[in-house]
Task: structure prediction
Amino acid sequence: MNKSAANSAEFIQAKQRQMQILEERKAYLDGIFKQYPDAFFTKFKISGQNLISKNSKANGDMDTMRQLMYYRDHFWDGVDFNDNRLLNTPVIANKLKRYIKELTHNTPIRL
Result:
């Protein structure tokens, strides 16, 4: 996409509509999560969600190292390991694969 298309009124309007839809979806899901906190759907959806972190430097640039550390530290926050029902879903396995492949150092340690 070129810069002129990204600055067009049509693009900006579509982007605003997208943000509105995402906010409505989040509000709807949050309502379900509050109303049915122990439901399997709630546990499943919360466990599978990706973290949203907005770590930025004083000048407004993205602080990638800080974001990575936050992401690693809070990666498992939404997973209820006491709920055995999640073991029958791909949520934990997929998160574990992602954590090992993308968030850990993959060079073997030589002793």
